[in-house]
Every structure is written in C-alpha cells, then in structure tokens.
C-alpha cells in the first residue's frame, strides 16, 4: 500500500550543512563560558585571579541565566552533533558508543547547566562527572578505536582530534586526581584543568567543521534513520516527485 502524505514536490534536502552544527556547538559553549565569566567578573562575583571554575560563573544572577540558557542550547546541539557523526559515513562512531557515551555527555552538560553548584550541588556534580567522564571516553574511542577511514581518506584533522582527545582525557583525569589530593574548587590548578578539558572537547567538535566539509547535510541523519527502518523490513522510503511511504 502506498500513501501519499503531501502532493507537493519534495523540498531541497541540502538546506543546512552538518558542519555548521559543529561550528555552532563550539561557538555557543565557548561563548557562553566566556560571557558568564565576564559578567560574573564585572559583578564582583568572581576574581580575575585565581581563575574560577566554570561552574562558579553560573551561580549568581545575572550571569547564571546566560550560563544556563547557553549551555542547555549547547547540550541540544551536542546531541544533534553526535547523531550526525553516528550517521555520517566519513567519520565513524558506532551506535553503541553514541548511546552509551555521546548522548549521556550532552545530558550531563544539560544537568550541570540547569542545576548550579550552590543551589543543587549534588545534581550539578553528578551532571559534571557524567559530562567529563563520558566526553573523554567518547572522544578517545572515536579518535582511535572506531576510526572507520581508509588511509587515503584520513586528513590532518584526524591527527588533531587524536591530540585533543588525549588533552581532554589528561585534564579530565587531573580534575579527579586534584580533588582526591584535597585541592578545592577555588584553587587555580583545578580551574585550569576544568577550562582546558572543556575547551579541548569543544575544539575537538570544531574540527568537524572542516572535516565534514560540504559533503554532509542535516537531512542525511533523517535519511539514515529511514534506511535503518527500511532494512528492518517495516517501511520503505521512496524519493520521487512526491514523498510516499510503502508499508509492508
């Protein structure tokens, strides 16, 4: 049975490059942290030195509103970015890695953004630990173990991502080690490790802006899902002058 959902022509699927999601996600996260820090500094809520942890820049108004809204939007873009990477054939991330590590990292980012470290410390640090741990392992696996590229398709950005994943892992682990040895959130060593780990992760994402190039589009993630459903024998997607759905 064939059912036509819309008699109008299929809209152009190549309307938004996937690489722009990586760019927006990085710029939004970096911009939000810097803006929150600048506002908190101006309001006298943090000091220029020692540098504060990023979390301390989202405690008091008005910077906490910028912090929460910006990072929640960033978490959504991170979720979309991970879905794009999973469905793109050029840079491989397995479905298991995406669901066990990638998507939880975006959820952890959202939780730490909504629950600040003074009002909801338990939830905030659960979100923070989830974000740092899953992000570090996700970047590491995607950079080394699950790299489904032939030699001729490898670019310089692959090497850059491998380096950034190691930087992110090093400073994420450094956070845990410093806290274990009694360092406090007010110590510059802790703050430096946190800022470096976050920015390494964000620049990791940014490399896909150049690596994905003009080859991939947002609609390909949707088509990937359609192909998966079709392959399970449930539906068949048909692209012609009209969009139709063949059901078994």
User: What structural category characterises the helix and strand content?
Assistant: mainly alpha
Number of DSSP strand runs? 3
> Averaged pLDDT, please?
79
Strand content: 5-15%
Give the N-to-C terminal Cα separation. 7 Å
- Strand order across the biggest sheet? 1-3-2
Outline the low-pLDDT stretches.
5-11, 222-248
The ordered H/E elements are EHHHHHHHEE
**Largest sheet features:** 3 strands, antiparallel
Total helical elements:
7
- Taken from the alpha-carbon principal axes, the silhouette is globular
Secondary structure: helix percent: 55-70%
Q: Which radius of gyration do the C-alpha atoms yield?
A: 21 Å
Architecture overview:
The protein has a three-stranded antiparallel β-sheet with strand order 1-3-2. Strand 2 (235-239) and strand 3 (243-247) form a beta hairpin. The protein has helices at residues 19-43, 63-87, 95-114, 121-145, 156-180, 188-212, 218-231; strands at residues 2-6, 235-239, 243-247. 38% of the residues are buried. It is 64% helix and 6% strand. With 248 residues, it is mainly α. The radius of gyration is 21 Å and the shape is globular. It starts with a strand and ends with a strand. The model is unreliable at 5-11 and 222-248 (pLDDT under 50). The protein is built from seven helices and three strands; from the N terminus they run E-H-H-H-H-H-H-H-E-E.
Question: What is this structure's SSE topology?
Answer:
Layout: E1 2-6, H1 19-43, H2 63-87, H3 95-114, H4 121-145, H5 156-180, H6 188-212, H7 218-231, E2 235-239, E3 243-247
Antiparallel strand pairs: 1-3, 2-3
Helix pairs in contact: 1-2, 1-6, 2-3, 3-4, 4-5, 4-6, 5-6
């Amino acid at each position: 049975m064939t059912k036509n959902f819309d008699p109008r022509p299929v809209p152009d699927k190549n309307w938004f490059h996937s690489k722009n999601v990586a760019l927006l996600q990085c710029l939004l996260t970096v911009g939000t942290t810097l803006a929150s820090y600048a506002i908190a500094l101006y309001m006298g809520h943090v000091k220029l030195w020692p540098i504060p942890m990023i979390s301390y820049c989202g405690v008091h108004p008005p910077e906490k509103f910028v912090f929460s809204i910006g990072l929640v939007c960033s978490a959504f873009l991170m979720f979309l970015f991970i879905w794009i990477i999973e469905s793109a054939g050029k840079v491989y991330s397995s479905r298991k890695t995406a669901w066990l590590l990638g998507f939880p990292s975006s959820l952890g980012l959202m939780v730490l953004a909504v629950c600040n470290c003074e009002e909801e410390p338990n939830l905030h640090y659960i979100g923070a630990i989830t974000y740092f741990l899953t992000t570090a392992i996700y970047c590491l696996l995607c950079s080394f173990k699950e790299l489904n590229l032939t030699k001729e398709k490898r670019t310089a950005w692959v090497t850059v991502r491998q380096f950034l994943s190691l930087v992110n892992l090093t400073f994420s682990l450094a956070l845990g080690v410093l806290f274990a040895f009694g360092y406090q959130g007010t110590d510059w060593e802790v703050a430096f490790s946190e800022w470096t780990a976050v920015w390494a992760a964000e620049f990791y994402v940014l490399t896909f802006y150049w690596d994905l190039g003009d080859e991939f589009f947002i609609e390909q993630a949707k088509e990937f899902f359609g192909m998966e459903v079709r392959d399970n024998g449930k539906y068949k997607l048909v692209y012609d002058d009209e969009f139709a759905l063949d059901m078994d």
